[in-house]
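Q: What changes when S-adenosylmethionine is included in the input?
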Amino acid sequence: MELWFTEKYSPNSGITIKVKKELAHKKSDFQEMSIIDTYEFGKIMVLDGFIMFTEKDEFIYHEMIAHVPLFSQENPENVLLIGGGDGGAVREVLKHNSVKRVDLVEIDKMVVDASKEFFPQVSSGFSDKRFHLHIEDGIKFVKQSKEKYDVVIVDSTDPIGPAVGLYQRDFYKNIYNILNDDGILVVQGESPYYRDTKEAFIALNKELKTVFPFTMPYFAFIPTYPSGMWSLGYARKDGKEILEPLRQKTFETKYYNSETHKASFAHPEFVKELLK
Ligand code: SAM
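A: The predicted holo structure follows.
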């Protein structure tokens, strides 16, 4: 018998992937998780029916969410990640030798544990001495934190359930307050294509603009996210329009380079319309 997994992007479309086997199925106080092994994309983490990442294409999202902000600074030392309990973005952040401390605030320990068990190549940064894990709500963490950060990365689920507050103005204001003067915020930014993600894309870019003097979404091609065209919101506290890397890359990547960095800020006409 054939087994297939489908994630719906709209009432009439979605992605369908042939499954070898379900490796785990668990529920936490926050969400339901399935780990599936597939023919095309390797192992996949699914939360509440949505693909979080796949072994085959996770490098794209994780490299782009981490390296664009980090290469937009001369000397990033302190980095905060909200969400992203799988560790993929942590792995990429730790490739920067200037980084002295990485705090990861993930609300759901189940995600961290599953990544350690099923995705050791994604969670490899968890054993680094510079890495510090906090199992708590990112919304509370940024409200109470006395630390200052050079880069804050919000690697969250879609704006439903515990992640709703991660797309709101007060959350962005609290992040603004814990960033250094030239600090950068990058957020998982949804897709401008299908209706639901488009609404979230417009709303979050609008909110970011009310808090930061310079914001600009950038894009990466991610085959297993709705439409493949995925955005990341980029906001600078110093208001500078820096849209290219400030340093040379000294380590290996599979998607990120200085050309993809610069090109990721190019906006198609329909996106410019949405951002007006
Ligand atoms: N970019 C990925 C995606 O949407 O497909 C997200 C990957 S990562 C697994 C998202 C994480 O955000 C989840 O593990 C979830 O538990 C976490 N999260 C959601 N709301 C949160 C909150 N309020 N504070 C901290 N982490 C949160």
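Observations recorded in class: The CA atoms of residues 112 and 183 lie 27 Å apart.
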